[in-house]
Design goal:
27% of the residues lie in helices and 25% in strands. By secondary structure, the protein is of the alpha/beta class. The protein starts with a strand and ends in a 5-residue tail after the last helix.
Length: 398
């Protein structure tokens, strides 16, 4: 066997690098990070890029510039994991041995699951902020629209940043309001959930937001087909068992998402979870069947919102528990399911939805009521959070 690391981390995104940096700070010297991309993206900014409120270039840096010092960067992609043999096989056929494994490859975008979706986002009238290269196109479509029907859709099932499909609708509607054309545009928001949000206090605030813009919300519904040539979407109402076909002049869509296909096929996947996520204890982040395997971020089976804020709380828990297991002790650190969804509701306002496994508000900023839209929360989203990400979160300092 050519390569072996005491700790192998699959994925060089937010989760993988945060853990690698924390392990280095804890004195661990033999760490490998398996990551094929030479670019590192701060994806939370893509909604603002699509809404014309941030430049695309601020969301990307060279992967080499954010890789922790002293970590072996293996520029390849994982293709299989054999936890019995402590072996990871890469896309190029390399075999990497490990003593302890951290699985954080992120989540895959299943564009093909909705007929016509993959073709639609390449067509002139549709886009998606879930791709770096398409986010500027979203803004071009919004900026060029003066009348007609704009449809914004969200898929069912877990997705990264579940608020993103709503955020862009609000950024677009506020722009059209400022331009004086909102009254000439029919805005339709398609949500798979029975409410605007899973936490009641935030759902009530978002009801006020959609009422302000006159947005038609289709709840318990999703786009099940799209014809990019005719510019039509089929919306299925799962509660009523009905379908409607809508013509669109602009479409913003978010694809269904799941664990990477190669990960689904491994024995690490949760057999009870159709998404194929790594089966971990939701509090300790340790695999339920393989004690030398941990997972965090979007590919883990924890039932929290898949956000960067969740990773920020998961990373220190995972590292503490991994170090304990390496030392022959039980891991006692616990993750409470914290997640946060910075819901941009206007071009200068934001609702900071914070919650945990109890699905109750879990505010982290003292003396500020974050259950309502706020201008200062917009500044947090636009300037403070990106700064913290590059300088403190990725290096494992907070």
């Amino acid at each position: 066997m050519g390569i072996h690391h005491k700790i192998l981390i699959i994925g060089g995104g937010n989760a993988g690098l945060s853990v690698a940096a924390r392990l280095r700070r804890a004195g661990q010297g033999d760490i490998g990070v398996l990551e094929p991309s030479d670019k590192h993206y701060y994806q939370p900014l893509w909604s603002l890029v699509g809404g014309g409120r941030a430049p695309q270039k601020e969301s990307v840096r060279e992967q080499s510039s954010v890789m922790p010092q002293g970590v072996a960067w293996i520029r390849d992609a994982a293709a299989d994991i054999d936890p019995e043999a402590h072996l990871v096989t890469t896309a190029s056929g390399a075999r990497i041995g490990y003593d302890y494994l951290v699985v954080s490859p992120g989540i895959q975008l299943d564009w093909q699951k909705v007929p016509g979706m993959a073709e639609a986002v390449e067509s002139p009238a549709a886009s998606s902020n879930y791709r770096y290269d398409l986010a500027p196109k979203t803004w071009e479509l919004i900026r060029g629209m003066r009348s007609g029907t704009a449809v914004f859709t969200m898929p069912s099932g877990p997705i990264k940043c579940a608020g993103a499909p709503q955020k862009i609708a609000y950024l677009a509607a506020d722009h059209w309001r400022q331009q004086g054309v909102l009254g000439d545009i029919r805005v339709v928001l398609v949500l798979p959930t029975p409410g605007m949000f899973g936490v009641q206090v935030f759902a009530e605030e978002l009801e006020r937001v959609v009422a302000r813009y006159g947005i038609e919300v289709r709840k318990s519904s999703e786009m099940t087909e799209v014809d990019p040539v005719a510019q039509e979407v089929v919306i299925t109402d799962h509660a009523a068992g009905t379908q409607e076909t809508l013509h669109y002049d602009m479409l913003h869509t978010a694809p269904p998402q799941s664990a990477p296909d190669w990960l689904k096929a491994t024995s690490l996947a949760d057999p009870e979870n159709p998404g194929g996520y790594v089966e971990v204890d939701k509090h300790t982040l340790q695999h339920t069947r393989y004690p030398d395997v941990f997972a965090l971020g979007d590919a883990g089976s924890t039932p929290n919102s898949k956000t960067g804020a969740a990773i920020r709380k998961q990373a220190p828990v995972l590292v503490e528990n991994l170090l304990a297991v390496m030392d022959g002790r039980p891991g006692t650190a616990r993750y409470d399911g914290y997640g946060s969804c910075p819901l941009v509701t206007a071009r200068n306002k934001m609702l900071l939805a914070e919650f945990d496994y109890s699905m109750q508000p879990a505010p982290s900023i003292p003396f500020i009521d974050t259950t309502h839209e706020r201008r200062d929360m917009w500044l947090l989203k636009r300037y403070v959070l990106p700064f913290l990400y590059w300088h403190f979160i990725l290096p494992g300092r907070i």
